[in-house]
Amino acid sequence: MLLIAFEGIDGSGKGTQAKLLARWIREKGYDVFLTKEPTDGAIGKLLRESLRTSCFDARTEALLFAADRSEHLREIMKKLHEGKVVITERYLYSSLAYQSVSGLEMSWLREINAFAPEADLVVYLDVEPEVALERISSRNSLRASVREKEHFERREFLEKVREVYLALAKDSENFEVVDASGTINEVQASVRRRVGRRLAAFEEEKKHSEQRALEDFT
Ligand code: TYD
């Protein structure tokens, strides 16, 4: 019925915000299916392994992300057909942003993901990589000083990923860019405002198409 994707760099708060949004949409009486990529399926597991050990090169990883998505979509489509609102933490746009920064052509990435429909709404949680990395290191209680070089490289990488996300957002009407540097409650309030608007527009459109169908019938 409605596919909402949460996107953002690592540490932008996608998981927390997606859960809170799912709860809010449920309270409005919708059936919600909350899910994520990489999935917990066989290909998703392989991907997590590769992210940890770099056992595959960038091109193979891109193909695996697409394959994982293809499997994921069977489940997503089924839930949409059942009339559910589907919220996914990461989707197609993660591949476009991360894998292009890993050196792969955007046109090729679009091609191998051509089977994936655009999300009805993409909530992009925008945060500076430095802030996101601080959140991650406090979550994992890593000492930044020990991993300074790693931290620096990751920050540079995520800065580029953020640039691609912002360029994608500029080119697409489906994107809502949300400032994710505030508190959990502040960010959630902003997410709800944007999604609420879209939900209302969607309900309106549904009402019209039902009315048209009824008129055609009578
Ligand atoms: P995830 O588990 O969402 O990590 P986090 O919670 O830190 O955001 O995703 C794991 C990593 O996989 C993350 O660094 C982004 C990357 N990724 C891609 O590079 N391409 C993709 O298509 C997807 C879905 C994820």
Question: What features would you describe in this structure?
Answer:
With 218 residues, the chain is α/β, with parallel strands linked by helices. The chain has one domain: Rossmann fold (3-Layer(aba) Sandwich), CATH 3.40.50.300. It is 63% helix and 12% strand. The chain has 8 helices and 5 strands. The protein has a 5-stranded parallel β-sheet, with helices on both faces. The relative contact order is 0.17. The mean pLDDT is 94. The structure holds thymidine-5'-diphosphate. Residues 10, 37-38, 51, 65, 90, 94-95, 98-99 line the site of thymidine-5'-diphosphate (TYD).
Please outline the helices and strands.
Elements: E1 2-7, H1 14-27, E2 32-36, H2 42-53, H3 58-81, E3 85-89, H4 92-101, H5 106-112, E4 121-126, H6 129-140, H7 148-171, E5 175-179, H8 184-217
Parallel strand pairs: 1-3, 1-4, 2-3, 4-5
Helix pairs in contact: 1-8, 2-3, 4-7
Number of continuous helical runs: 8
Mean pLDDT: 94
Find the CATH topology: Rossmann fold
Q: Just name the CATH architecture.
A: 3-Layer(aba) Sandwich
CATH superfamily: P-loop containing nucleotide triphosphate hydrolases
Distance between the termini: 26 Å
In short:
63% of the residues lie in helices and 12% in strands.
